[in-house]
Structure formats: structure tokens, C-alpha cells
Amino acid sequence: MTVAYYFVIVFHVIACLFLIGVVLLQQGKNQDLASAFGGGGTQTAFGPRGSANVLSKATTILAALFMITCLALSMLRPKSSSVLDKAGQTAPVAAPSVPAASVPAASVPAASVPPASAPAPAASPSAP
Length: 128
Fold this sequence. Notes:
- This protein is an all-alpha fold.
- The radius of gyration is 36 Å and the shape is elongated.
- Helices cover about 45% and strands about 0% of the residues.
- Helix 1 runs antiparallel to helix 3.
């Protein structure tokens, strides 16, 4: 199973590189000088629809191959658990080492307890 996984990864990377190259080799719809100055207004909204050339057919085939290898990689992935697989699990709750009932109240030092102080009296407004 792992051999097929690595084979599909290699095939996927090769398909990605070829897809990038084919897309970069294609020429845009309005790459002439006249369209830069508004001369391409006689065309339809999305440009003329001509027959598909070799590069557009290769783009379609490589895009389909890219999607198929993506699906194959998701089905062939090793069954090791990832961080996302572990995110749904709850961590075990550790029991406290010393129960709260066994700690006597006298063992808490008095210096650590802040003294209760009365709030400061509110300042009264002075009358003229």
C-alpha cells in the first residue's frame, strides 16, 4: 500500500509541474496591442470562441489528472494519526495528588492570607 502511495505522490508532483508549465505557456485572450487601447470592442463579452488547441487540451487533461491524483492520495494515505485526528479526543483527567479534604486549614500560613481592610471613605464634596 505504501508503494502505491509514493508512486501516486511522484505522479502527482509530475502532473503539477506539467500543469504549471502548460498554463504559463498559454497566451491570453487579449494579448495584442489593439486591445490595450480599446480596439477589441467588437468581440463578444468573453472573447471569440475558437477551436481548442493543443495547450488547452493538455490543460484540461492535466487538470483532470491532478484531481484524480488528489483523490487517490486522500484514499491511499497511511493510517497514522495526525494532529487533526487527535483533536477530537479528550485528554484523560489526572487525579489530584493530595485530596483537598486531607489538607488541614491550619497548615496555610497566616502571612499568605491578605488582611481584610475596610474600604476608604468616599470624599465628600466641599460646600462653599
